[in-house]
Design a protein that fits this description.
- The chain has one domain (about 1-245): Rossmann fold (3-Layer(aba) Sandwich), CATH 3.40.50.10320.
- It contains 7 helices and 9 strands.
- The protein has helices spanning about 35-45, 70-85, 105-120, 135-150, 190-200, 200-205, 215-225; strands spanning about 1-5, 25-30, 50-60, 90-95, 120-125, 165-170, 185, 235, 245.
- The strands form 2 sheets. The protein has a 7-stranded mixed β-sheet, sandwiched between helices. Strands 1-9 form a two-stranded antiparallel sheet.
């Protein structure tokens, strides 16, 4: 018996297989990150009966040069609530500021306690390499927090949670270095609701940034769909250790 590394295309709900409801916790550095990169998957899974929870570590309140962080933060919170309603997600806000997510044990313990409270089976967050420090920090914080959430010796307001079956890293244009699509989820049924959700945000509708977020992620879903032989798909990467399969024979 030996380790064999095989590229896989894993699709949700293959052949109508019955699976118990999942609890999906999506953790983004800024309001809007999760919705753009993974919103179609969250909509798809929520429709399949899964519980969806979104944790925004910050509002991304520093992203509008025409507004103060306080005013834009209030706007982003309203936009995030509107997007969550369309997705069918519960919403949690962390107490951190845009560009200032602390890379420390206290932040990891906070996220670990959210994990214990929500009890996710699956976690979605940022890829490890990014041009944005908040994204890279979020990745490191979440990966460590999953471990802390298990440990009896780490004391928080909620008991340990050992039920996380996988951490999935979303595809983001700011987090592209080293990202390799590994797992594809068919989201052919989610486009209309996803567009409604992301367009809750002014920065997606246009007028704040010259980058066309909607066009990019809409086109990306078509590209990943073509690769997966579906109309539309969203791709994730996972940790290298998760790509090892140990088999008794070639599958």
């Amino acid at each position: 018996m030996r380790a064999i590394f095989i590229p896989l295309v894993l699709m949700a709900n293959i052949a109508g297989a019955q699976t118990p409801p999942r609890v999906i916790l999506a953790i983004g550095a800024h309001a809007g990150d999760v919705e753009l990169t993974s919103g179609q998957v969250l909509i798809h899974q929520q429709r399949a009966g899964d519980r969806v929870v979104v944790l925004h570590l910050t509002a991304g309140e520093g992203g509008n040069p025409k507004m103060s962080p306080v005013a834009y933060g209030e706007q982003k919170r309203k936009e995030a609530a509107a997007a969550a309603k369309v997705i069918g997600a519960e919403l949690i806000w962390a107490p951190y500021l845009d560009g200032q997510i602390p890379d420390d044990d206290a932040t990891r313990t906070y996220v670990a306690d959210v994990i214990r409270q929500v009890k996710p089976t699956h976690i979605i967050t940022h890829w490890k390499r990014s041009i944005h420090k908040d994204h890279a920090r979020t990745h490191a914080i979440v990966v460590d927090a999953v471990l802390l959430a298990v440990l009896e010796g780490v004391k928080t307001d909620h008991p340990p949670h050992r039920g996380v079956r996988g951490i999935y890293f979303a595809e983001n244009w700011e987090d592209a270095e080293g990202f390799r699509p590994y797992l594809y989820v068919d989201v052919s049924d989610a486009r209309d609701a996803w567009l409604e959700a992301i367009r809750s945000y002014e920065f997606v509708r246009g007028g704040i940034s010259s980058f066309s977020y909607q066009s990019y992620y809409d086109a990306l879903a078509s590209v990943r769909g073509a690769e997966a032989r579906k109309t539309r798909a969203v791709a994730f990467d996972i940790d290298e250790s998760g790509k090892k399969r140990i088999l008794d024979a070639i599958p």
